[in-house]
Design goal:
By secondary structure, the protein is α/β, with parallel strands linked by helices. It is 49% helix and 15% strand. The chain folds into two domains: 210 residues, P-loop containing nucleotide triphosphate hydrolases (Rossmann fold); 43 residues. It has ten helices and seven strands. Strands 3-2-4-1-5-6-7 form a seven-stranded parallel beta sheet, with helices on both faces. The structure holds guanosine-5'-triphosphate and magnesium ion (MG). Magnesium ion (MG) binds next to helix 1.
Amino acid sequence: MRELFPHTGRAKIYGVTGAPGAGKSTLVNAMTAQLRSNGLRVGIIAVDPSSPYTGGAILGDRIRMQGHYADEQVFIRSMAARGAMGGLAPATLDMALLMDAAGMDAVIVETVGVGQDEVDIARLADVTLVVLTPGLGDDVQTIKAGILEIADVFVINKADQPGAEKLERELRSSLTLGARPDGWEAPVVKTIASEGKGIAEVFEAAERYLARGAGVERTERHWRERLREMYRERLLEALPAEELDRAAREVAARRADPYGIVEAWLDACVAKKNQETEIRK
Ligand SMILES: Nc1nc2c(ncn2[C@@H]2O[C@H](COP(=O)(O)OP(=O)(O)OP(=O)(O)O)[C@@H](O)[C@H]2O)c(=O)[nH]1
Ligand SMILES: [Mg+2]
């Protein structure tokens, strides 16, 4: 990853999130078709919300995206959300960086919006699309506040079904009530993903957000978080499990204080690094 990193930073990362069955994969498929018609290379990461053991949802996504399976300029990767080491975000981010380094112009990450995952994805994406549908109990009152905050663009998919206008009206009026801290009022776009309708408008809305240049601040915020995570991970990795057990026993028995132990661990880390540097010299 270290060697690849200098080759990243070119791809646009789109996050697509929403309730199960909202039509996310269908939308991603239609977006991919549009990007391909502009000659762009596309990476797709489908984060599977179901158990990694069944593979059911992975297969489902593969079938829906099969229109692009034979296309060499489209690379599709499914990832299991559960069981991912250190949470979903690090693994997904590394995969997105890998695709970026491999020369993908766009990377689209699909996640089901049911928890922490979509917030993580919103952090790594340059622009986050939240997919809603009419008639699935998706009225504005029931939409989680968190989802409203992460959406840079709202996509009302299945606009061919009754209730799309009503949902749009409700959504727009709730958006004007509570503006986001950054002042962005997310555009609302209607699509019929299964017929490829409204896709150009989705890209237009995404571009409008990207053109606003909020990206730098957001990217910095993202890396601040990520660096913190990476640093914590590395420090913990350097700590043998037996040492942690031993220290816990000592503290529990009041034979040592936890503050001194953490201090000693940090000192040991620094000493080890210095030693490594000496050896390399
Ligand atoms: N009527 C209608 N059906 C659609 C539309 N878009 C997608 N669908 C259908 O909705 C169903 C679910 O679509 P998917 O794309 O698999 O939805 P998803 O959000 O990716 O689903 P999960 O990944 O399982 O959460 C499929 O049967 C699609 O054919 C649309 O615009 N109109
Ligand atoms: Mg899907």
